[in-house]
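idk why but the lab printer keeps eating my pages so im just putting this in chat instead. protein + (2Z)-2-iminopentanedioic acid:
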Amino acid sequence: MLLTMEAKDEATRNAKEYVNEIYETVVKRNPHESEFHQAVLEILHSLVPILAKNPIYQKHSILERIVEPERIISFRVPWVDDQGKVQVNRGFRVQFNSAIGPYKGGLRFHPSVNASIIKFLGFEQIYKNALTGQPIGGGKGGSDFDPKGKSDMEIMRFTQSFMTELYRHIGPDIDVPAGDIGVGGREIGYLFGQYKRIRGGNEAGVLTGKGIGYGGSLARTEATGYGTVYFVQEMLQDKGIELEGSTVVVSGSGNVSIYAIEKVQQLGAQVVACSDSNGYIYDKNGINLDTVKRLKEVEGKRIKEYVEAHPHAEYVEGCTGIWSIPCDIALPCATQNEIDEEAAKQLVANGVKAVAEGANMPSTLEAVDVFLSNDVLFGPAKAANAGGVAVSALEMAQNSSRIAWSFEEVDAKLHDIMKNIYQQSVQAAEEYGYAGNLVIGANIAGFKKVADAMIVQGVI
Ligand code: NDP
Ligand code: 2IT
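predcted complex ->
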């Protein structure tokens, strides 16, 4: 559906040619970076309607510029493990686009991290951040460091070494990292401590996702998961579908998943399954979130151990099978490309009504097409999971003003932001002739803000 949009007129044919040319250049210039290619392909194709209507973007070579990061930093991260052996990892920061504000985006620590993963995440972040309505540009970073099985001291030594290089590239008005996979409150604490030590001053706004005791924002921990569910509420409300009483499957059991589950349960729906990278649990009585939080947030254990506390639940090895569980709402909250075409078809066959992406790019392009062409309500990542970075921007605002807002204040602002992102996406989709297609709507709405800012700032 996205890739096979009809060329209705001359302007659309030209726009298609333009995006095809740009895509080919991206593939040629960034060989072997399949995740980055995928993210670019999705955006470019959904921009065809706005490019066709507004030749100004082509005139200013916006696509040529927007697909090229302003800067990519790649660096060595040496550290000493508990056995006294020197280990070397690779660190990255991509500063993709600063047209509307300082670069902003998380850090991911996972063995799969490479330039392609960081570039796809940074590219998506540009449009997501624009959708939040906050003044933040797009960036992302991380390392191929694997936090699994590492001691607390190893995590600290690695993280300090990572910051010893990163510090020279970031700052409250330059680039503001936060968490992502493998980077949570503990890692942000160590990163902040090392930055402060090197800089010799307390620049609270240099990182977000900080602890509440040293400049963090209430509700940042919950923001991505809660925000995704607020987005689902908007999608359902528009179609007169009740969230209360519905059955929900949430993949993953990390930060985004846990708080998506919490909000779903608060709103009276039942989450029957969640997962980690080894397998998934199915609990027909509804997941006991206290057990998941204990296992994952406190003890650092595998999700498999859930069945020890709840013997009636089932554990299944392997994570993709989770999408074969019948549900009304599916929330992929683990990682990229976790729903492929086959999984999407299975969800549709089982009657799924809505899918919202808590993770970044969890659905393949083919899976997205399956959802769109079967009238499943589909909330794309850039819109549905923008609540996390939105509250990060609110954390920056609190740091700048040296004021801390209450949980309720931040949560209310988050809720408004999610409603607003939904409305912007709906309106852009309608305006450009693709009513109901939130992929096209979100991409166009985010792109327009960034592209317009780039035009008025000249060729930079
Ligand atoms: P966490 O590290 O807290 O949790 C990640 C979860 O996903 C874990 O349950 C993990 O299992 C699972 N997972 C990770 N990699 C894989 C994999 N390759 N295959 C299967 N499962 C996997 O990360 P977050 O919850 O912060 O992030 C989850 C997703 O949400 C990511 O796509 C991230 O980019 C996105 N996101 C995060 C935001 C945030 O504020 N944190 C904001 C917006 C999006 P295991 O423990 O076994 O590794
Ligand atoms: O993907 C994301 O939006 C995040 N990991 C959160 C980024 C942030 O700066 O809060």
